[in-house]
Amino acid sequence: xxxxxxxxxxxxxxxxxxxxxxxxxxxxxxxxxxxxxxxxxxxxxxxxxxxxxxxxxxxxxxxxxxxxxxxxxxxxxxxxxxxxxxxxxxxxxxxxxxxxxxxxxxxxxxxxxxxxxxxxxxxxxxxxxxxxxxxxxxxxxxxxxxxxxxxxxxxxxxxxxxxxxxxxxxxxxxxxxxxxxxxxxxxxxxxxxxxxxxxxxxxxxxxxxxxxxxxxxxxxxxxxxxxxxxxxxxxxxxxxxxxxxxxxxxxxxxxxxxxxxxxxxxxxxxxxxxxxxxxxxxxxxxxxxxxxxxxxxxxxxxxxxxxxxxxxxxxxxxxxxxxxxxxxxxxxxxxxxxxxxxxxxxxxxxxxx
Length: 353
What we know:
6-stranded parallel beta sheet, alpha/beta, globular, 43% helix, two-stranded parallel sheet, 10 helices, 14 strands
């Protein structure tokens, strides 16, 4: 088996199927996988699409198992939520914030139950962490970093803005020539929405442990190996440009003691790229879209994915680590806990999910 050592802040792409054939030496870094809670989507006919817990969720985090098993020492595993940033820049009302927060807490709980049951010895410890550092940097400071990036890399920064616009409105913008003028118009007119997307992208610098302030992470002096899906490649580009600015200017941007970490970045590619499981896939025409996942809300079993070939590959990846019958039993068993947690949060937060 070939073993490789990665270069810090240089994204390394690998297909998920290749993880078992390659040993990635983390050099005693800890593993970090970040996820977030998407804002609610409203269809043209007024229906709201949220992203409750779905059965695909573990597939996004299992590359950490494949990589951890090949280390000389068991690494820590940080499962990091950026919910604080999502509540700040993605939610549009207090009720939506509370619903997003609840969905995020339930996903954390599900992952904790999953890893404790099936992988209790793989990591030295698993930290379920809500990142605080992005909130310690003012919006003005984050935009100072972005202004520096634009000055240093004007061409790259424009392409980044186009990518963020497509993330924000995937059905509206694509790469076709006829939509170039519409995209250019959006970049010039939708300033606040685009600025929020930029601030969200730069916040990855802090959420992923590149720049650390006292009190957020239990800091490993070796740093972290962040693992993400294909979408993460774009945020890694922003992270690296922002890191360049911060490293060059030292603590110019911050009033807090600052620690920089020499992190590596792993992008786990798939032959069929699908929305990340924590966001959930959708299907249907724009005015009739609905969630395309097995959830406890729609009462679909995991066999639903047998009819959805693009999503089924994620389930097969889970089954490579946990046999299907065992995962099905776990999914069915968690249902009562899900319903109980949902009910408790509805009472506590005075919301309806």
